[in-house]
Amino acid sequence: MKVNQAEFIISAVRPDQYPEDGLPEVALAGRSNVGKSSLTNRMINRKNLARTSSTPGKTQHLNYYKINEMMYFVDFPGYGYAKVSKSQREAWGKMIERYLLEREPLKLVLLVIDLRHEPSKDDILMYDWLKHYDCNICVVATKADKIPRSKWAKHVKIVKQALGFVPEDDFVMFSSETGLGKDELWAIIERHAFGNDEEEYEDDQDAQVDEEPVEGEDELNDKAEKPADQ
Questions:
Q1: Radius of gyration for the alpha carbons in the chain, expressed in angstroms and rounded
Q2: Residues 6 or more apart in contact with residue 2 via CB below 8 angstroms
Q3: Of 73, 77, 115, 116, which has fewest CB within 10 angstroms of its CB?
Q4: Please, are residues 81 and 57 in contact by the beta-carbon 8 Å criterion?
Q5: Helix (H/G/I), strand (E/B), else coil: 72
Q6: Quick one: average pLDDT of 77-90?
Q7: What is the pLDDT of the chain when averaged over all its residues?
């Protein structure tokens, strides 16, 4: 997808704050400080729309970003940060669980994992949780640029084995620094969010351009329809 417009919409904590326009939603889940904001910024070609933070656990809401007036990225609160209180973690868990269970526009969940390390217990729990709710999942193994290319296959194998990854889900190696995996990830997002609707949308846009009259076209047509002087 070519991103021409992206904007932050709302930090929501309740369903009545979620957008009501019915546009497809793609959620991003992952542990605190795994790089979800950096991934979002790379995907939409913006440096600071999704603000990164040196303080893990800062995101405490569902942050909605609208893209091309066509869809939303929904950033979940990061999990697994020890300094977040137990009551706060429970509140986040209930909010996310309700979203996963009830949010009809949700089309895909991106589970963001750090490729450098074996998935944490929280990563595994989240993957199992998403499978339990029968969500469409794409595991995004980011920070690939921090690992030598010769070791990518080894690290991918470790991640997949730890998660109990099933082939029916999507998996993408990604780097927010280099853009590795960006086009592949957009293709997966478009497939889940739009099906063929994305192609139909682009066809409609092309048709509108084709239908726009060329300046002076009517005058030229009138002249063409008049018989030549004898």
A1: 22
A2: none
A3: 116
A4: yes
A5: strand
A6: 70
A7: 83
